[in-house]
């Protein structure tokens, strides 16, 4: 006897649903027919940080070191200052910039004291100038020579003569023309360091005295002594003076004593005969 298998309604319905699910899967369905829903991940934002490059500070050569450092510092540079000479001294306020080296983030300044000339190269010797010979030189030419030597000095004007006056105002009013340097306080050939005081002794014109402080009018010198006069060529005092009276007979009166044995004075005697009588 053949047995027929009966499939209930509930079994048939389950089979239909299974087929529907299998038919709805695409290539994204995993093995087994179950589709996994994609969940978006968090967004990642990458930010590139750029390092800012400071603006060029501009040349600071010749500037005072403090001003140069402040100018570079305001632009964001790191500062490295040093002595530009071979002395390797600590840099001080008031020094001037001779050399500079600029990188992307740092500025190096080489400086020397303000009164010093800059070395030929960073770390070299300071080329101190020497004093030129200004004697018997026109004032304006003397100033040009000092400038050519790059000498920094504090100038005082004085007269070469002790009894004359020459000052700054006189020279300025004449624009330096007509004045000659006779003497200088700093010896020619001397090495000049810093800003020394320099006195120039001038004359108006070009007639310089033999030495500084000479009196142009020697009689104004407190030590002046008048030259002695020579009286040897004059007459003796006995025959002249107030005792002589030429209003009478031409003889002496009053002081003459005819008792003297010396004969008659010139001009005759009161006694017509000399002592001892007259000769026939």
Index terms:
4-stranded mixed β-sheet, 280 residues, alpha/beta, Trypsin Inhibitor V, Chain A, 4 helices, rod-shaped, disordered N terminus, 3-stranded mixed β-sheet
Determine the structural class based on helices, strands and strand pairing: alpha/beta
The CATH class of one domain = Alpha Beta
- Could you tell me the CATH topology label of one domain: Trypsin Inhibitor V, Chain A
Beta-strand residue percentage? 15-25%
Q: What is the overall silhouette?
A: rod-shaped
Distance between the termini: 247 Å
DSSP strand count: 7
- If you compute it from the alpha carbons, what radius of gyration comes out, rounded to the nearest whole angstrom? 60 Å
Please report the number of helical segments: 4
Give a short account of the largest sheet.
Answer: 4 strands, mixed
User: What is the helix/strand order?
Assistant: HHEEEEHEHEE
Q: Could you report the average pLDDT, rounded to the nearest whole number?
A: 78
Overall CATH architecture of one domain:
2-Layer Sandwich
How do the strands of the widest beta sheet line up side by side? 4-6-7-5
Describe this protein's structure.
This protein is of the alpha/beta class. Among the domains are: 63-112, no CATH class; 130-220, 2-Layer Sandwich (Trypsin Inhibitor V, Chain A), CATH 3.30.10. 15% of the residues lie in helices and 15% in strands. The protein is built from four helices and seven strands; from the N terminus they run H-H-E-E-E-E-H-E-H-E-E. The protein has helices at 9-24, 65-74, 139-148, 168-173, and strands at 78-83, 96-102, 106-112, 137-138, 154-159, 179-184, 197-204. The strands form two sheets. The chain has a four-stranded mixed sheet. A three-stranded mixed sheet has the order 1-3-2, covered by helices on one side. The longest helix has 16 residues, at 9-24. Residues 1-13, 15-22, 46-50 and 237-261 have low confidence and may be disordered.
């Amino acid at each position: 006897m053949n047995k027929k298998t009966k499939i209930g309604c509930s079994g048939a319905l389950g089979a239909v649903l299974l087929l529907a699910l299998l038919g709805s899967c695409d290539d994204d369905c995993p093995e087994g027919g179950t589709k996994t829903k994609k969940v978006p991940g968090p967004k990642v934002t990458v930010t590139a940080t750029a390092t800012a490059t400071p603006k060029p500070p501009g040349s600071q050569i010749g500037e005072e070191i403090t001003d140069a450092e402040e100018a570079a510092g305001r632009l964001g540079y790191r500062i490295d200052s040093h002595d530009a000479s071979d002395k390797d001294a600590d840099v001080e306020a008031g020094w001037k910039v001779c050399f500079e080296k600029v990188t992307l983030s740092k500025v190096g300044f080489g400086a020397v004291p303000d009164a010093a000339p800059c070395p030929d190269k960073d770390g070299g010797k300071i080329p101190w100038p020497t004093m030129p010979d200004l004697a018997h030189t026109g004032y304006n030419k003397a100033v040009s020579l000092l400038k050519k030597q790059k000498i920094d000095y504090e100038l005082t004007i004085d007269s070469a003569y002790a009894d004359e006056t020459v000052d700054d105002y006189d020279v300025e009013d004449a624009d330096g023309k007509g004045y000659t340097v006779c003497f200088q306080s700093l010896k020619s050939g001397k090495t000049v360091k810093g800003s020394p005081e320099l006195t120039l002794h001038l004359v108006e014109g070009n007639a310089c005295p033999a030495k500084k402080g000479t009196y142009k009018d020697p009689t104004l010198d407190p030590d002046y002594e008048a030259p002695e006069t020579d009286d040897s060529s004059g007459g003796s005092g006995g025959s002249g003076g107030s005792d002589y009276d030429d209003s009478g007979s031409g003889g002496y009166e009053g002081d003459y004593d005819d008792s003297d044995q010396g004969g008659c004075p010139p001009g005759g005697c009161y006694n017509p005969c000399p002592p001892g009588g007259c000769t026939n």
